[in-house]
């Protein structure tokens, strides 16, 4: 490992998002290569064997499809979208070839993650895939994306996915050692930066653009991703995905690369947001449910719900108030719209589907989406 980075211990983690760029997957002659992906897949396998979850955010569909393109073909947006459609199957086949466990393809756009209902649906799907011990491989849906198909998109998508699945760390595999004081490809005296307390304008000033023919994101977009992740209390790790020794040591809990810290823990960041996010309405609950929320941090079930005030939608932040004294008990993200909550109030969880004709799960508010006051 000649990158000059000092080896340090990784932060403790149970769930990670691993972002792999197309520069690590593209073959020189076109298409995909397992050259660097094999070591990254071995890291995923070892992590899973130790009881951890890894979600992969993988670029490479356009690079895979490019091998099927006519030589000299113009690469406008429609052509790139067609290549992405052709390359998706090859990209998933590459990852599936490394694992005995099933690989699940999940295609997202930023619009899916901005729309509250689709956001919750995507989160529920990913949580279920992890519960099934599948390996989600996420990519942007380049076949339908228009303005989203742009420089460095999957770096930022990976940060959003990390928050979506409640990851502890975001691992970004690059084709250089990590963050340097200058571009190491053109500045021989560039010094490695092992530890970053916070992303600053000074760091953005030294970040470069794309470093390879196949890649779409340079170090700047990785800093943008790290800043997004830090806001959710998630640390970001930048490392050289082309160095099998560096990748292998990650599985041992050791990093040679850059650690970008978050100002507060993931849980603290989420609780802070829930406490201060605008409320769209309120849910009234009985004293027994109020005690369960206050004393045990329990999820809120429909049996303890008495009613709902306002016209909030599924995914909105709402107040939770006790019917007995009217005092606030907590705040959380509602899994059901106000109109639905009024219909399932005081009902057993097994009756939700029969009453509504559908179900988003047994919880009105899941404990992970709730902060007691």
TrEMBL record:
Keywords: Amino-acid biosynthesis, ATP-binding, Cytoplasm, Kinase, Nucleotide-binding, Proline biosynthesis, Transferase. It comes from the Bacteria. This is Glutamate 5-kinase. Its EC number is 2.7.2.11. The gene is proB. GO terms for molecular function: ATP binding; glutamate 5-kinase activity; RNA binding. Catalyzes the transfer of a phosphate group to glutamate to form L-glutamate 5-phosphate. Pathway: Amino-acid biosynthesis; L-proline biosynthesis; L-glutamate 5-semialdehyde from L-glutamate: step 1/2. Belongs to the glutamate 5-kinase family. It comes from Luteibacter rhizovicinus. PANTHER family: GLUTAMATE 5-KINASE (PTHR43654), ISOPENTENYL PHOSPHATE KINASE (PTHR43654:SF1). It holds the Pfam family AA_kinase.
